[in-house]
C-alpha cells in the first residue's frame, strides 16, 4: 500500500497515520524525520538540507525530492509506505510521480482528512503532548487517564506554542490555501480519498480501510 496523507493541523493526521502503518505494516515517512536523520548521519543530502535550514530558508524541491527518493529505496518500503508532509506543492507531487515511475511503482491513494476550520481549531487547542515520549492526547477527545500525565511513560503533558488558538487559525488558513491546488492535482488523477475528519477516531480509520479495500 503506497499512500500520501494530507490534512490540516488538528485533523488527526498523526493518530490516523499510526493506525494506518500498523494495519498495513508499512513505514510512516515524514520529511521532517528524514531531514533530521540525514543531518544526524552527515549524508551529502543532509548537509545540503542543513545549509538551507540554518539560513532559515525552505529546502529546494530538488533536494527534498532526492531525500524522499533515497528513503523510498530502503528495504522497509518494498511493500509500501505512508508519506506524511510530502508532497506539499504541485511541483513536488509532479516530481514524486516521475521518480516513482522510474522506480516502477505508483501511488495507490492520497488520503485527505477534511474538517471545518472551527472544529480544527477546537481540536488543536485541546491537544497535549508527552514531554518524554511525544505521545499525543486531547483534553476532550482523547484524554489521558490521569490529567496531564502520559499513560505510556508517566511524563508531563504540555501544550505546544503552535497549538495556541491564534497560531492554529493562521496555520490552518495557510495550509488550506497552499494545499488546495495539490488536492485538485490528485483529484484529477483519481487518487484522492476524502475522509470526514469530524467523526470519532475509530470511525475515520474504518472509513479509510474500507475505501482502500484491503
UniProtKB/TrEMBL annotation:
Residues 30-59 are annotated as: NMP. Pfam families: ADK (PF00406), ADK_lid (PF05191). InterPro entries: Adenyl_kin_sub, Adenylat/UMP-CMP_kin, Adenylat_kinase_CS, Adenylate_kinase_lid-dom. Its EC number is 2.7.4.3. It catalyses: AMP + ATP = 2 ADP. GO terms for molecular function: AMP kinase activity. Residues 126-163 are annotated as: LID. It is found in: Cytoplasm. AMP binds at residues 31, 36, 57-59, 85-88, 92, 160, 171. PROSITE patterns: ADENYLATE_KINASE. Keywords: ATP-binding, Cytoplasm, Kinase, Nucleotide biosynthesis, Nucleotide-binding, Transferase. The keyword Oxidoreductase does not apply. Pathway: Purine metabolism; AMP biosynthesis via salvage pathway; AMP from ADP: step 1/1. ATP binds at residues 10-15, 127, 136-137, 199. It is an enzyme of class 2 (transferase). Residues 127-162 form the Adenylate kinase active site lid domain. Monomer. Consists of three domains, a large central CORE domain and two small peripheral domains, NMPbind and LID, which undergo movements during catalysis. The LID domain closes over the site of phosphoryl transfer upon ATP binding. Assembling and dissambling the active center during each catalytic cycle provides an effective means to prevent ATP hydrolysis. PANTHER family: NUCLEOTIDE KINASE. Belongs to the adenylate kinase family. Catalyzes the reversible transfer of the terminal phosphate group between ATP and AMP. Plays an important role in cellular energy homeostasis and in adenine nucleotide metabolism. This is Adenylate kinase. The gene is adk.
Amino acid at each position: 500500500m503506497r499512500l500520501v496523507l494530507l490534512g490540516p493541523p488538528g485533523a488527526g493526521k498523526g493518530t490516523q497515520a499510526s493506525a494506518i502503518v500498523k494495519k498495513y505494516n508499512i513505514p510512516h515517512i515524514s520529511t521532517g524525520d528524514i531531514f533530521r536523520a540525514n543531518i544526524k548521519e552527515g549524508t551529502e543530502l543532509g548537509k545540503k538540507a542543513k545549509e538551507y535550514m540554518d539560513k532559515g530558508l525552505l529546502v529546494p524541491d530538488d533536494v527534498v525530492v532526492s531525500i524522499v527518493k533515497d528513503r523510498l529505496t530502503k528495504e522497509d518500503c518494498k511493500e509500501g509506505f505512508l508519506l506524511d508532509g510530502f508532497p506539499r506543492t504541485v511541483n513536488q507531487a509532479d516530481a514524486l510521480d516521475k521518480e516513482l515511475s522510474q522506480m516502477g511503482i505508483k501511488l495507490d491513494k492520497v488520503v485527505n482528512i477534511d474538517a471545518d476550520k472551527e472544529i480544527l481549531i477546537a481540536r488543536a487547542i485541546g491537544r497535549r503532548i508527552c514531554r518524554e515520549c511525544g505521545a499525543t492526547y486531547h483534553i476532550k477527545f482523547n484524554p489521558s487517564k490521569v490529567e496531564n500525565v502520559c499513560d505510556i511513560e508517566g511524563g508531563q503533558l504540555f501544550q505546544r506554542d503552535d497549538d495556541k488558538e491564534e497560531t492554529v487559525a493562521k496555520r490552518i488558513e495557510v495550509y488550506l490555501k497552499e494545499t488546495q491546488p495539490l488536492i485538485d492535482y490528485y483529484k484529477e488523477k483519481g487518487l484522492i480519498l476524502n475522509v470526514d475528519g469530524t467523526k470519532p477516531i475509530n470511525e475515520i480509520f474504518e472509513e479509510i480501510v474500507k475505501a482502500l479495500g484491503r
